[in-house]
């Protein structure tokens, strides 16, 4: 859940709330939107705030914490780095790929509630991945779309045909 995403939806559905910005308080919504409109689909991610760990070690820790899979560092494949939030934070993100199996599952994932994380792991069937990526009704980051496209171009063609 992101407040900014939620507020953009409030503005889209109830522009009158933002037309009174010169007043001390915004008008109260009589019919508030459900919290779900502030929820987005994202890749597993984390902040690089452990200087004693490599990017790969941090990524493996995030996969365990958020998704519940214990992935060895040697199983990561570095895809690329890119900038996001360039108008606000200019964050640099590094994208990795890892294949996981049921045997690698060691927990439920879900993130750290004490850090404000409430994460639901979502599995998208391969045959639905591009439909998911381009579905504008499902709020997602550009990283999700890029990762699905990368997968379709680099991994899917090498998979056995059933």
TrEMBL record:
Coiled coil: none
GO molecular function: UDP-sugar diphosphatase activity
Quaternary data: Homodimer.
PANTHER family referenced in this protein's UniProt entry, alphabetically: UDP/ADP-SUGAR PYROPHOSPHATASE, URIDINE DIPHOSPHATE GLUCOSE PYROPHOSPHATASE NUDT14
EC category name: hydrolase
Catalytic function, reaction form: UDP-sugar + H2O = UMP + alpha-D-aldose 1-phosphate
Main subcellular location: cytoplasm
Cellular component GO terms held in the UniProt record: cytoplasm
Function: Hydrolyzes UDP-glucose to glucose 1-phosphate and UMP and ADP-ribose to ribose 5-phosphate and AMP. The physiological substrate is probably UDP-glucose. Poor activity on other substrates such as ADP-glucose, CDP-glucose, GDP-glucose and GDP-mannose.
Organism of this sequence: Geococcyx californianus
Compartments (UniProt record): Cytoplasm
Keyword Magnesium on entry: yes
BP term (GO), one: nucleoside phosphate metabolic process
Keyword field: Cytoplasm, Hydrolase, Magnesium
Family: Belongs to the Nudix hydrolase family.
UniProt keyword Plastid present: no
Protein name, entry field: Uridine diphosphate glucose pyrophosphatase NUDT14
């Amino acid at each position: 859940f992101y407040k900014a995403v939620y507020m953009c939806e409030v503005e889209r559905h109830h522009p009158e709330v933002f037309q009174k910005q010169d007043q001390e308080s915004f008008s109260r919504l009589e019919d508030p939107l459900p919290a779900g409109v502030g929820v987005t689909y994202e890749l597993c991610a984390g902040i690089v705030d452990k200087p004693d760990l490599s990017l790969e070690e941090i990524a493996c820790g995030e996969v365990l914490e958020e998704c519940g899979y214990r992935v060895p560092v040697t199983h990561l494949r570095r895809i690329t780095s890119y900038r996001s939030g360039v108008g606000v934070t200019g964050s640099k993100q590094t994208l990795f790929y890892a294949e996981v199996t049921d045997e690698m599952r060691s927990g439920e994932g879900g993130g750290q509630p004490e850090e404000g994380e409430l994460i639901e792991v979502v599995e998208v069937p391969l045959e639905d991945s591009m439909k998911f990526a381009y579905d504008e009704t499902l709020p997602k980051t550009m990283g999700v779309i890029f990762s699905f496209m990368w997968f379709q171009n680099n991994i899917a063609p090498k998979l056995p045909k059933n």
